[in-house]
Amino acid sequence: MPALRVDVWSDIACPWCYVGKRRLEGALERMPHRKSVQVVWRAFELNPSAPRVIENTVSYAERLARKYETSVAQADGMIRRMTDIAATCGLEFRFDRIRPGNTFDAHRLLHLAADHGKQGKLKERLLSAYLTEGAAIGDPETLLRLACDVGIDADMAQGALSTDAYATEVRADERAAHELGVQGVPFFVIGDRYAVAGAQSEDVLLEVLVRAWNETAVGNSVADGAVCGPQGCA
C-alpha cells in the first residue's frame, strides 16, 4: 500500500490538466518520498453531451470566442497564453490540430489501464495525442491504437470499448467530484485531506504533498489556480 495517495480529477480535453500533470510530476521529483506516493487519475467530463467526434468546421479560436462571448482576437490571445505556459513545462500545444469529441470512452480505458498498472502511461499518451498530435480522442479506433501504444492488450482494449466496461467506475468518479464540489479541473486531493484546485505551481503542489506526508491529523486546504470547466478553460 502507498503511504500517500494523490487523486486527480481531470479530462483529456483539458489543456490545464496537462500542465497540472507536468507540474505534479515536477513536484513529485523534488519530494524525497516519491516512491511511496500513488497517483490515481479520476474521470471528469468537461462536455459529457459531446458526440464521439466533432467535425472541425471552425477553428479552436472561433469555438473559444463563442464560448466566452469574446472576439476571435481575444481568444487567440488566450490560446497564446496557454501555449506559452505549456512550453515552460516542456509541452507543445497545437490548438490548430485539435479534434474535439466525447471523452467518456477514454476515461473507461483509463480505468482498464489502472487494473493493469498502466494508468499513468495511458493518461500521458491520451493527453499528448489530443493536445499535440491532433488525435480524435472520441474515436474508438484511435483509442484502441493509443491503448496499444502503452502496452495494453488489443483484445482487452477492444473488449472494453465494444461494451460498457468501466462505465460504473467513471460515473463513480464523477459523483465523487460532484460531492467534493469540483467545478473545474485539474483538481487534486492529496492524502484524503488537502484539496488543490487548478494547475498550481510545482512549489504549491510540493508544499501540500510534504504537508500531507508529515501530518496525520485531518485537515484541509484549498488553493485555486487555472482550470478547465464546462464553460471552457480560464
What does this structure look like?
By secondary structure, the chain is of the alpha/beta class. It has a single domain, classed as 3-Layer(aba) Sandwich (Glutaredoxin). The chain has 9 helices and 7 strands. A 5-stranded mixed β-sheet has the order 2-1-3-4-5. The chain has a two-stranded antiparallel sheet with strand order 6-7. α1 packs across α9 and α5 packs across α6.
Based on CA atoms alone, the radius of gyration comes out at 17 Å
Distance between the termini: 36 Å
Uncertain runs are 216-222
**In CATH's first tier, which class applies?**
Alpha Beta
CATH homologous superfamily (4th level) name: Glutaredoxin
Counting DSSP E segments of at least 2 residues, the number of strands comes to: 7
Mind summarizing the main beta sheet?
A: 5 strands, mixed
* pLDDT averaged over residues: 92
Strand content: 5-15%
**Helical percentage:** 40-55%
Q: Name the helix and strand elements from N-terminus to C-terminus, one letter apiece.
A: EHEHHHHHHHEEHEEE
Tell me the domain tally: 1
The name CATH uses for the topology is Glutaredoxin
- Helix count, per DSSP? 9
Strand order of the largest sheet: 2-1-3-4-5
- Architecture, according to CATH? 3-Layer(aba) Sandwich
Q: What structural category do the secondary elements indicate?
A: alpha/beta
Quaternary status of these chains?
single chain
What's the overall geometry? globular
